[in-house]
Amino acid sequence: MKKYTDQGKKDTRSGYGAGMTELGRTNPKVVALCADLVGSLKIDKFIEENPERFFQVGVAEANMMGIAAGLTIGGYIPFTGTFANFSTGRVYDQIRQSIAYSHKNVKICASHAGLTLGEDGATHQILEDIGLMKMLPGMTVINTCDFNQTKAATIAIADHHGPVYLRFGRPKVANFTPVDQKFEIGKAVLLNEGTDVTIIATGHLVWEALIAAEALENNGISAEVINIHTIKPLDEKALLTSVRKTGCVVTAEEHNFLGGLGESVARTLTTHHPVPQEFVATKDTFGESGTPAQLMEKYGLNNKAIEKAVYQVLKRKA
Amino acid sequence: MEELQDIVVQVRRDIVRMVHKVNSGHPGGSLGCTEFLVALYYEILNLKEKFDMDGIGEDLFFLSNGHISPLYYSVLARRGYFPIDELNTFRLINTRLQGHPTTHEGLPGVRISSGSLGQGMSVAIGAALAKKLNGDKHIIYSLHGDGELQEGQNWEAIMFAAGNKVDNLIATIDRNGQQIDGPTEEVMPLGDVGAKFKVFGWDVLELKEGNNLEAIMHTLKEAKKRTGKGKPVCIIMHTVMGNGVDFMMHTHAWHGKAPNDEQLKTALDQNPVTLGDY
């Protein structure tokens, strides 16, 4: 199996901050907005270097989305920053009307997504945001897996015209993708070739999928691992090519199984090439307080859960 | 002023004919703001000849209370943004003149979709900030319904604009005192709207005769003089809903209701052709 090395644990939100720092230096049209969470979004450097291109809106996310839409009129590329919960559900109609329907070039950048937000609990742990955002016509939805990929994605979306939802998280996690990677929106990344099962993972679950694949290999199971960073538009070609070879699939995401990556994959499969699928995702539930590791264990979102799902899907395939 | 009045009368005809044809749409608020929008587009806004989305180097207008689209479309068409005959397609399938204004079908003159209330002030502020970043001295104008102020997002925006000295913005509130379910003060009392803006840090002008062209022009010119002085500017414009069609005046009954054939005839008789019907 192809080896991946953790270059040192880092949070994906710092990848966003690093990407913004670079954009601040390279793209004069990029502006940043934040709803009282500058420290959490790691954009201090961007603000320090570009004070005139930063707008602090206070605890007023609805207003932030509208102002972002307005800033595009005049040629700017606004990046909004707050927690995923407040970037989506709280302001859904503002995004729908003023951004998506109006096709405004706004980048909605959302930190602290999912259970790994941890101790703050379910009020802040959104597990429905991918579904909410992917249902909006014209919205691109990206969920990055580590620091390097988040930085690359942040930079890449500035060059994509149209609304984008970029989802990342709070905890320090393995940083294993290449530093100088080219981020291609809508292009799946094949991390490991295999023949028995396809594991399609997004966000924090990608690293867990690699750990699971290694354990499976030790038991004689060859798992193909695909990193789907772009949930919409979905790289259907890549996943169909893989499942035509392996004949079964496990999807893994830090999100509700209703509305997430798994459902998008299932729709593609049922349309083109139906095969057994297992879902590693939360099962229509809210989260709770706890450490990220405890929560991912309790809600079945780690490498062990992926392994288990692989055995399950292999049984159904047979 | 006589010329402007002729345009007002013709726009009124357009409004009632548009909503009558499809038996849907919002004539009341449209008629109430007709003098304002005609004055704004014909005398106040500094506009480029051709429409482009970014609108750099010209004044911009944002309509927040998007349901008064018949008025907006009529004024945009007659001001040359698109063919006047296209008013015939209002609310019909495959039209660019959707029930509420949108950029989705690429209608020239429209820069944001509106109609889901309470969002226009934020958008106008964003556009005003972009003007400042671009070193563009032109002004952002916006129009809002009074009932719409019940949406909390407005107050986020009002706070932001004052706190950030967005002084290239003139927001006008159509204070007709009516909303769908009745008088605003019965449905959800707004109280002294001007005082509220003032206490948030805006420069506020009261326009008592919001259906009087001369008064409107005077107030808009005064408002423009007050821009660039560190405060956003607000005009509380007192209007009569349904103005110019007697049976539609002073009531919320015609907020979202079309006239029948007979009512249309009465409305048109009260507003004889000036520029010519579409």
CATH superfamily of the largest domain in chain A: Thiamin diphosphate (ThDP)-binding fold, Pyr/PP domains
The beta-strand count of chain B equals 7
Give the number of helices of chain B.
10
Oligomer type: heterodimer
Describe the overall structure:
- The complex is a heterodimer of chains A (318) and B (278).
- Chain A has 318 residues and is an alpha/beta fold.
- Chain A has two domains: 10-173, Rossmann fold, CATH 3.40.50.970; 189-317, Rossmann fold.
- In chain A, 40% of the residues lie in helices and 20% in strands.
- In chain A, the strands form three sheets. Chain A has a seven-stranded mixed beta sheet with strand order 3-2-4-5-7-6-12, with helices on both faces. In chain A, strands 9-11-10-13-14 form a five-stranded mixed beta sheet, sandwiched between helices. In chain A, strands 1-8 form a two-stranded antiparallel sheet.
- In chain A, strand 10, helix 9 and strand 11 form a beta-alpha-beta unit.
- In chain A, helix 4 (61-72) runs parallel beside helix 6 and helix 9 crosses helix 13 (303-317).
- The mean pLDDT of chain A is 98.
- Chain B is an alpha/beta fold and 278 residues long.
- Chain B has a single domain (2-269), classed as Rossmann fold (3-Layer(aba) Sandwich), CATH 3.40.50.
- Helices cover 39% and strands 12% of the residues of chain B.
- Chain B is built from ten helices and seven strands.
- In chain B, the strands form two sheets. Chain B has a five-stranded parallel beta sheet, with helices on both faces. In chain B, strands 4-5 form a two-stranded antiparallel sheet.
- In chain B, strand 6, helix 9 and strand 7 (233-238) form a beta-alpha-beta unit.
- The longest helix of chain B is centred in the N-terminal third of the chain and has 21 residues, at 2-22.
- The radius of gyration of chain B is 17 Å and the shape is globular.
- The mean pLDDT of chain B is 97.
- Chains A and B meet through helix 4 and helix 6 of A and helix 5 and helix 6 of B.
